[in-house]
Each structure stands twice: as C-alpha cells, then as structure tokens.
C-alpha cells in the first residue's frame, strides 16, 4: 500500500476472518510460550545442572529482548511489507522454538530464547496495527475483543498445561507443543496474508536504535532484577541509571528527527495518553495476581505449582470469554462506563486480597481472582481500543508500539515493586502469618493502583465525544499533511 487511502479501502475489499485467524494463532503461540516455562524451570535446573539464578535468565532474557524489540516495531512496520515482517517474525519465533526443543545445554537454550523473543516482540504490535487498519472504528472493539480472548486464554492454560506436561514428559515437550502451531500459521499466512500497512521507508538511524535498546533494556533489566537482587545492589542501580539517561537521550532525539524510530507525538492525543497510563496501572494490578498469588500459595500455603495454575484458570477463562463481549459493548457504548465499572470491580476485588491468612482457602482465592479478571476484561481491550482510535492511520504503528512498550515497562516495574513490598513487609518472627502479612501489604499497593486507574477512567470521554474528537483530529492531520 502506498497511501492511507489504500489501507482504508482494504477494510472492505476482502474477507477478514481467515486473516484474523492467522493473527490470533500467532498471538496465541507467542503468549503461550511466555507462560509455559515458569512451571518447568525446576525440571530444567535438574536436567541441565543449573542454579536458580542462572535458570531464571531463561525468563529474564525473553522479557528483556521482547521489550527491546517492541519499540523498534513502529520503524519496522513502516520499513517492510506486512507479509515480509510477519513471516520473518514468525520464522524467528519458530527457529528459536526449535533450537530450545533440541538444545543440548544452557547456552544454546539461551540462543533459542533470544530468537523466540525477537520474533514475539514484533508479532504483538504488528497484529494490533493490522487489526486497526483492516477494521473500521465501529468494529474495532469486537476485533480487539477476539484478540483479548487469546491474550487471556493462553496464560489461562499455560501454567496448567506446563505443569501436566513436565509431570508426564521431558521439559522439551513444552517447545514441541508450540512448533506445530507456528508451522501451520506460517504456511497459512504465506497464502492469505496481504500487505496492509503503509510503507514510508524511514531512514535507519543507528544511534536511535542503540539508545532505544540501552534505554528500554536497561530499565526492564533493572526493575526485573530488583525484586530478587534488592534495590540497593550496584547491578540494579547501574541498569536503571543507564536506562534512564539513554532513554531520555532517545526521546529528545526522536523529537528532533524528521523520521523518528518511535513517534512520541502520540502523547499529544489526550485520550491516548490517559488510556495508556490506565493500561499500565491495570498491568501492575494484574501482576499482583499472576506473581504474588502463586508465591503465596506455594511458599506459604503448601500448594503445588499445578494447584496455583488451576487457581488462576477460572479467572483467566472468564477474562477470555468476556473479552469479545466487552469488545462488542465498546463498539456500542464506548469505553467510559465499561472502564468505570470494570475498575470499580477490580479495585474492590483486589482489596479483598489484603486480608489473607494461612487458613485462606483455594476456593476463596479462585473466586475472588475470577472477579478481578472479570473487571479487568471490562477495561483492558476497551481502553486500548479507545486510545488507539484517537490516532490518525499514520500514527497507529507508533501507538501500538508505544502501548505495548509501556505495558512491558509497567509489568517489570510492577513485579519488582510488589515482590519488594511483599518481602520487606514480611514479619518473619511472627511465623507463617508474618510472611502472609507481606502479601497483604503488596495487595494494598496493587489496590491503590486500581483506585488511581478508576480515577483516570472518569476522564475518558463518552462515545459521542470520542467520535467527534477523533474525526476532528483526523481532519486536522489530513489538512496538515496537505499543507
């Protein structure tokens, strides 16, 4: 496509269902891959003779490379055709998965994880960009709802499937399970995927790519290791310092370049800025359930990894089922009231985790977490869609890249903060209940994050105002382009 009009025409000129299936399958494989490994780490440690700190790098390196790749995707989307970029990303992901499956040792396994992450980091923002370009505004909510179903369903089955597989088969089976999905998706994509995105052929600014890598990579690494290494360690402080300095340099450079790698102009759109911050706060609250609850169950209540996966399963399934429904509700009513109701449910249910004890039942944890996920489903995809809807077509790749990057950062920061709060607030001299006290305090922080999100939800415009503002923005963008 050589112009925005071409991409607009593509919204009605072909059957979108096969394309949606291809995109969803790729997203499913990428997200499932992220959630499978945690349960298998103890088995990998035994098989490859690794200590816990070394084995954890298999998780950390994936998140780090993934986080580095996401900000660069806006540049890649404008540089390469949709088909070439998608097939390359899935190819990298597939080769990395195969290497992980046959890896004889830790170093080769790490190479596989790096390749997996480099592909996965491109796949997610690219898919969101394609969805926004092929669907008109009035149908984007439903499309993103289907996308949200996959984002919820893959983590739902990931820990449970992983727990079962490593009990029955070698840990390598985790990667062999994903390979057929990737292989079939690549073949189908080769025949049906169209070139949707607009190629602008931006210049390669090597310094910007280096600064982006050091900036986002430094922050993600620093916050990711802070939970285990401690905030005062030289490694954490140096990483965050280098990340902050280079990221500032990167942002200032993008504002001066004619063709920036990542457009920070997206933050000129107020609704996009509000919804991006809201998405980050939701992620911090979600991390509480995904990280703190399994630690609480396994370390303090004596449940197995499989049990903790089963506890999270109902909530994730509810979030998956609700995502298409909330997507359609968004198309009809807009994001404002969905966000307010959803954030209210999320805030109340999160505070219900601030009174946990050593006698807290599996049922209580599963039911309350299910309510949290129900509230989250009402907010997650609708606010993302509402924010990106405000952007003109030319800024959508930058908006999706920025949105995904900010969530990665929020996930890393949220994990580090909540784990640190949990460990520093624990009272070991009071025994098991003293340790549980740390968990309760960490959920107070997660609840406060939800309350702040609820406050921001009131600033999201109604559907009518949203449409009027978006149309005005697009009109101004076209006039400026013509001028």
Give a written overview of the molecule:
This protein is mainly alpha-helical. The protein has three domains: 11-192, Up-down Bundle (Growth Hormone, Chain: A); 206-260; 263-474, Up-down Bundle (Growth Hormone, Chain: A). The chain is built from 16 helices and no strands. Helix 3 (52-79) packs antiparallel against helix 14 (396-425). The radius of gyration is 22 Å and the shape is globular. The model is unreliable at 1-12 (pLDDT under 50).
What secondary-structure arrangement, pairings included, does this model have?
Layout: H1 4-9, H2 16-48, H3 52-79, H4 82-102, H5 106-134, H6 137-168, H7 173-192, H8 206-229, H9 234-256, H10 270-300, H11 305-333, H12 336-351, H13 362-389, H14 396-425, H15 431-457, H16 463-482
Helix pairs in contact: 2-3, 2-5, 2-6, 2-7, 3-5, 3-8, 3-14, 4-5, 4-7, 5-14, 6-11, 6-13, 8-9, 8-14, 10-11, 10-13, 10-14, 10-15, 11-13, 12-13, 12-15, 14-15
InterPro entries: EmrB-like, MFS, MFS_dom, MFS_trans_sf
Keywords: Cell membrane, Membrane, Transmembrane, Transmembrane helix, Transport
Membrane topology: Multi-pass membrane protein
The fraction of residues in strands falls at under 5%
Low-pLDDT stretches are 1-12
Number of domains: 3
Mean of all residue-level pLDDT scores:
85
* Main sheet makeup: none
Name given to the CATH homologous superfamily of the largest domain: MFS general substrate transporter like domains
Q: How large, in whole angstroms, is the Cα Rg?
A: 22 Å
């Amino acid at each position: 496509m050589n112009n925005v009009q071409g991409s607009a025409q593509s919204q009605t000129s072909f059957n979108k269902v096969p394309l949606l299936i291809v995109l969803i399958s790729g997203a499913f494989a990428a997200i499932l891959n992220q959630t499978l490994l945690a349960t298998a780490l103890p088995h990998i440690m035994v098989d490859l003779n690794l200590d816990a700190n070394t084995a954890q790098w298999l998780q950390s390196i994936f998140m780090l490379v993934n986080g580095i790749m996401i900000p660069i995707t806006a540049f890649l989307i404008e540089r390469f055709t949709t088909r070439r970029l998608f097939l390359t990303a899935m190819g990298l992901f597939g080769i990395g998965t195969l290497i992980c499956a046959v890896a004889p040792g830790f170093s080769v396994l790490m190479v596989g994880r790096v390749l997996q992450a480099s592909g996965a980091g491109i796949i997610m923002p690219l898919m969101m960009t394609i969805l926004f370009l092929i669907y008109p505004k009035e149908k984007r909510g439903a499309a993103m709802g289907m996308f949200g179903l996959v984002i919820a369903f893959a983590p739902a089955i990931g820990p449970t499937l992983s727990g079962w597989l490593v009990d029955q088969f070698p840990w390598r089976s985790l990667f062999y399970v994903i390979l057929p999905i990737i292989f079939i998706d690549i073949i189908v994509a080769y025949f049906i995927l169209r070139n949707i995105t607009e190629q602008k052929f931006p210049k390669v600014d090597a310094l910007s790519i280096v600064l982006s890598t050091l900036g986002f990579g430094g922050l993600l690494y620093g916050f990711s290791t802070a939970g285990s290494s401690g905030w005062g360690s030289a490694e954490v402080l140096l990483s965050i310092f280098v990340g902050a300095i280079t990221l500032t340099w990167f942002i200032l450079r993008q504002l001066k370049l004619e063709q920036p790698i990542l457009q920070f102009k997206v933050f000129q759109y107020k609704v996009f800025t509000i919804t991006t911050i809201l998405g980050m706060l939701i992620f911090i609250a979600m991390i509480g359930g995904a990280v703190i609850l399994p630690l609480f169950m396994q370390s303090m209540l004596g449940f197995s990894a499989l049990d903790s996966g089963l506890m999270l399963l109902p909530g994730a399934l509810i979030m998956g089922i609700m995502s298409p429904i909330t997507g359609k509700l968004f198309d009809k009513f807009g994001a404002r009231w969905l966000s307010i109701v959803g954030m209210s449910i999320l805030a109340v249910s999160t505070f219900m985790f601030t009174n946990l004890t050593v006698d807290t039942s599996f049922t209580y944890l599963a039911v309350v977490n299910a309510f949290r996920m129900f509230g989250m489903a009402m907010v997650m995809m609708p606010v993302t869609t509402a924010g990106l809807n405000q952007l003109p077509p030319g800024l959508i790749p930058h908006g999706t890249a920025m949105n995904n990057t900010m969530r990665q950062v929020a996930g890393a920061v949220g994990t580090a903060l909540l784990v640190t709060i949990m460990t520093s607030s624990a009272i070991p001299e009071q025994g098991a209940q003293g340790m549980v006290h740390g968990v309760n305090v960490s959920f107070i922080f997660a609840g406060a994050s939800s309350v702040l999100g609820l406050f921001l939800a009131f600033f999201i415009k109604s559907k009518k105002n949203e449409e009027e503002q978006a149309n005005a923005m697009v009109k101004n963008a076209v006039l400026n382009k013509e001028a």
